[in-house]
Amino acid sequence: MSAQGKAEQDFQLEYQKAIERIRTMPDGAVGWVLTFLQTNLEALTPTEWTLVAFEVAAFVDETGDRFGGMVAPESGWSVEGVPNAKNYQTIPSRKEALDIQATVLEQLELYWHEGYTAFTFPQMTLVVVSPGEGSDEAGTIFVSAKRKAKEFEYRFVHLLAQSGDYIRRCPECAKIYLAIRRDQLYCQPRCQNRVAARKWREAQKTGERKESHRGTKRRKG
Fold first, then answer.
1. Which of 105, 82, 203 is nearest to 156 (CA)?
2. In 88-126, which positions are buried (b, 16+ CB within 10 angstroms) versus exposed (e)?
3. What was the pLDDT predicted at 171?
4. How far apart are CA 170 and CA 36, in angstroms?
5. How far, CA to CA in Å, does 51 sit from each of 64, 177, 180?
6. In this predicted model, what pLDDT tens digit does every residue of 153-186 receive, in sequence order?
7. Which of 103, 135, 168, 197 is paired with 159 by a 20 to 30 Å CA distance?
8. Rounded distance between C-alpha atoms, residue 49 and residue 41, angstroms
9. pTM of the model
C-alpha cells in the first residue's frame, strides 16, 4: 500500500471511530454537542484534541440526516487529515472549533432569553440534483456553504429546533444539559438537593433571628 493509501485508510478508521463515539453518547448527537460546547479545548493534550477534531468533522458530515438536508462542502476544514485533501479528509483546527463554540453558545444564550435565535449564512448555496442521486422519485437538495464551520451551525439549527426546549443551563452549577422532563430545573438531583439544603438553612437562620428579636422585645418590655 502506498503512503497516500495508508494515510487515507488511517484517516477513515479514526473518522469511523468518531462517528461511533457520537452515536453511543448518552442522548446521541445532542449529548455530544452539549459536551463539546462545554469542553475546554485549549486545555486538551494534542491526542485528546485530535479525537475531538475528528468528532467535529464527523458530526457535520455523518450525523446530520436526523437534523436536516444533505450538505455538499465547497471546501474542507483547514487541517489536512490526508496530504492534499481538500474537502472530506480534513479536520478542524483548534481555532475553528473555538470559534464554533463561541458562536453557538452566544446563540444559545439568545435562545434562552428571547425564545428565538438566528444564524446567518451569507455564502450558502442550495444545489438541486435530479432524481436518481438521493431518491428515485424526487430530486435532492444539497446545502453548500464555503466555510465549513457554517455547516456545523446548519446542523445545530436543526438540532435546536428538535430539542431546544429541553436544552437548559442549570441555575446551580451552570452546566448545560438535556432535560428529561419539561419541568426539570436542575441538571442532577445533587444540585436540586444542594439548593433545597441552602434554602432550609436560610429559613432556619431567619427563624432564629426572628426568635431572637422577639426575646429582645420581651426583655425590654
1. 105
2. ebbbbeeebbeebbebbeebbeebeeeeebeeeeeebee
3. 93
4. 17
5. 19, 22, 28
6. 988 998 899 899 999 999 999 999 999 999 999 9
7. 135
8. 7
9. 0.82
